[in-house]
Design brief:
The structure is a single chain. The chain has 151 residues and is of the alpha+beta class. It has a single domain, classed as Immunoglobulin-like, CATH 2.60.40. Helix content is 16%, strand content 40%. The protein is built from 1 helix and 8 strands; from the N terminus they run ββββββββα. It has an 8-stranded antiparallel beta sheet with strand order 5-4-7-8-1-2-3-6, with no helix packed on it. The chain is elongated, with a radius of gyration of 22 Å.
């Protein structure tokens, strides 16, 4: 199973927090992951927050690296590097839900066509949207001012 990557994939996004749809395949179908998930981008590289539907995952293996869950979470939550987008990325999840722990293979596909800004304090607005809003305000103000002068 073990696919290895020499470096993390890059994604053409500014540094910040986003949501991204992630599709999961593999396993028995009993467990799932939250989608969309959070994607933290820094220097064009992404780290995804994977939240399992089960609290019984005690580690994940991504690109040969064992990753432990985030502490203090009620669910099994992992911060994992994203090595590939728009194609299946092989990972292993170790579950303790059965009589003995089992490493289960999964494929995660992070969909770049389904990325949205997750900035705090309001939605991110593009410069063109801001210019459009300013233009609408100026035109509206001019119309109101003209009617006030005539009336």
């Amino acid at each position: 199973m073990e696919e290895t990557y020499t470096e993390m994939a890059t994604i053409d996004l500014e540094d910040g927090q986003y949501t991204i749809e992630v599709e999961m395949e593999g396993g028995s179908g009993k467990a799932s992951i939250q989608s969309p998930c959070t994607l933290e981008v820094e220097n064009k590289q992404g780290t995804a927050t994977i939240v399992w539907s089960s609290s019984h995952y005690d580690y994940m293996i991504v690109n040969g690296e064992k990753i432990l869950p985030e502490e203090g979470e009620e669910t099994s939550t992992f911060l994992i590097p994203v090595y590939i987008y728009d194609q299946p990325m092989k990972v292993i999840g170790d579950t303790t839900a059965m009589s003995t722990p089992h490493e289960i293979e999964y494929s995660l596909t992070f969909r770049t066509d389904q990325v949205k800004s997750a900035s705090k304090g309001g939605s991110a607005m593009s410069p063109s949207f801001i210019l459009l809003m300013i233009a609408a305000f100026v035109v509206g103000f001019a119309v109101v001012s003209r009617f006030k002068r005539k009336g």
